[in-house]
Design goal:
Keywords: Membrane, Transmembrane, Transmembrane helix. With about 120 residues, this protein is an all-alpha fold. The protein is about 50% helix and about 0% strand.
Length: about 120
Amino acid sequence: MQTERTIYISGRSRGLGWKEKLQLALLGLAGGAVLIAAFVFSLALALILVPIGFVAWLFRRALLRAALRRMQAGIDAAAAGGAGAPGRPPRYDEPQRPGPAAGGVTIDADYTVVEPRDRGPSQR
């Protein structure tokens, strides 16, 4: 047979003491200070970023043209300089362009790619 039991939760049986009231007041003040600081920070951030975004939006075509001109100038300088200045090792991201050899002679060779499955037993 199942017994049913009713439980009443009515909270604290006594009122808050002065220590609990002081803790609640301090926690409320700290929470309010955090809320005010977050509001002031977001307002300041909005007052700074909104005008910057608006100006960037107004001059977006000029800014993009200037950026593309700078990139094109860099590309043209890299193409004119080959793999970089003489005596300087090329950077890892610069294309390695074959140029004339030291004597001005370029060796050209014909070759055939042989797949591993097409090789004979003596070539493995």
